[in-house]
Amino acid sequence: MLKVYLVQMDSAKGSKSENLAKTRKMILDAYPAEGSLILLPEMFATGYLPASLDKEAEDFSTNTSGETAHMLSEIANATNCTIMGAGITRAANGFFNHVSIYEPGNTQEAAGYNKMNLFFPERGDFKPGTNVNLFNIKEIPACAGMTENANWKIATFICYDLRFPEIFREATKQGANLITIQAAWPAKRRAHWETLLKARAIENQVYIAAVNGVNTNAQSKAPLAGTSLIVTPNGDILAAGNDLEEAVIYAELDMQAEKNYRKSFPVLDGIVPPDLI
Fold first, then answer.
1. 73 vs 54: CA distance, rounded Å
2. Long-range contacts from 234-238, C-beta under 8 angstroms, 24+ separation
3. What is the residue-wise DSSP string for 217-234?
4. How far is it, in rounded angstroms, from Cα 3 to Cα 12?
5. Domains (range + CATH), the chain
6. pTM for the whole thing?
7. Residue 71 contacts residue 81 (beta carbons within 8 Å)
8. Would you state the pLDDT for residue 219?
9. pLDDT, tens digit, 9 for 90 and up, residues 208-246
């Protein structure tokens, strides 16, 4: 079983050090199990969108290259978990909306992803990414003497990407059995968020883990939807956050259950190579 933790949080704009400290505390207070996957919302350290992209942009390539990368690496080592952060990094003539993945014991970014489909306010300053990227996590054995570990292939996307089913299908064709979304999705389109997450899970027969930001201030002019979700390949909700509170949402994912479901209802036959189903 792969344990997944979604850190649904309120990120204050212009307060990176405050956001990083809050993130660290929320994760450590949740006591994530060794070998788990931890997800943070889109631009969790800066809020979406910060006033100055140039000021907030960071290098995520090593754990000494930027403040946020350092924190991600620190938490990965402290918990012995893989952690997925998200922030702003530089591109040629602009910026990328970026996912950064750090593993315990690794001083370099293990994997990354640049948002491929840019939301309207991002266009101009941000450049679109070009690749669907997958990375692997091996489950830690559940008990002493257990030698066979499930090898998860994980694809990650960001917020507005959710509206583009073709990139989710491409990830599935490449063997993804878990797809993650890190978002700053608005409350006024919460129904779209919930519906599309279930649809992406059902049509690709994959687990979906989607973490969203939230606004705890009821007076926010553009409140986020919260409602972080973990969805099964059949579209059932395993775990959910609400729309108002910061929380760490948790669930365990069963790869064998996913394989059994794909065999019992063979939607992906002829689409995904049999050895990847």
1. 23
2. 234/201, 234/202, 234/205, 234/261, 235/198, 235/199, 235/201, 235/202, 237/198
3. -TT-SS-BB---EEE-TT
4. 28
5. 2-276 (3.60.110.10)
6. 0.96
7. no
8. 65
9. 999 999 998 766 778 999 999 999 999 999 999 998 899
